[in-house]
Amino acid sequence: MVRGFYSAASGVLTKQRTMNVISNNISNVTTTGYKSQATIESSFREHLVSRRGVDPQRNIGPGSFMTVNISEYTDHSQGTLEGTGRSVDMAILGEGFFLIDSEAHGEVLTRSGQFEVDEDGDLILPGVGKVLDYRNREINVGVNDFTVDKDGTIRVGRRELTRLFIGLQDGDGQLLRVGKDTYLSEEGYRLLNDREFSVVQGYVEKSNVNLAEEMSKIIATQSNYHSCAQILKIYDAINEISVNRIGEVR
């Protein structure tokens, strides 16, 4: 009975964390460049013994074990593009991220291309930092009257100014989300070949959250959450009977 009590309690905690992630996706459905997240669940036994290289059926035996959220997964699939008509807005088709020099985390990656030009004429991502070029330098465009080629080359009039940094993390490590639409890599960053992407000026990439899918997920998760909560109440009632009635001396 105790094992079942802990299994139900872990189900409540797991589904609560899952609902938090889904709710965050729904709240960012209109956030430019946002990538949806999901939790990865596993039983605690499977998670523990897999790290120890043990066959659970042979060495431990079958049984009901607690469920845990072992990690979160970010879906980096392409979002749809939306035209804005603003020269400072840019979107990436294909692989890659823009590189931003943020005040809080240093150099970070983002798919959000909703840029602005500050009072110094530098290209910035509001609330994050300054946009960097392929040499990791700040980009000073001076005014909003500039054009961007498909390979990220920025031109002011007929003069080629610089080229945007479009790249990925350097290595196979996972990106760490440090904001709604910004990511950090401890392994550094590398430039992509211009055949792997295309920069589109005057457009932004919308969130890739599928609202209908997220709503169906949260309904199913809430149902599981309430089921686990009801099981907890049943176990609590059984424990009360065990303590107050079965143990009575007559």
Radius of gyration, in Å, reads 25 Å
Tally of DSSP β-strands: 18
What sort of overall outline do the alpha carbons produce when their principal axes are compared? elongated
Q: State the domain count.
A: 2
Unreliable sequence segments: none
> Roughly what is the average pLDDT, rounded to an integer?
86
Beta-strand residue fraction: 25-35%
Distance between the termini: 26 Å
Instruction: Give a quick account of the main beta sheet: strands, pairing sense, barrel closure.
Output: 9 strands, antiparallel
Strand and helix order:
HEHHEEEEEEEEEEEEEEEEEH
What would you say this structure looks like, in words?
- This protein is an alpha+beta fold and 250 residues long.
- The protein has 2 domains: 114 residues, no CATH class; 125 residues, no CATH class.
- Helix 1 packs antiparallel against helix 4.
- It is elongated and about 95 Å long.
- The two termini are 26 Å apart.
Task: Compose a concise summary of this entry.
The chain has 250 residues and is of the alpha+beta class. It has helices at residues 2-27, 44-52, 56-59, 211-246, and strands at residues 37-43, 67-74, 81-83, 90-94, 97-102, 106-110, 116-117, 123-125, 129-131, 147-148, 153-156, 159-163, 166-169, 176-177, 182-184, 189-191, 197-201, 203-205.
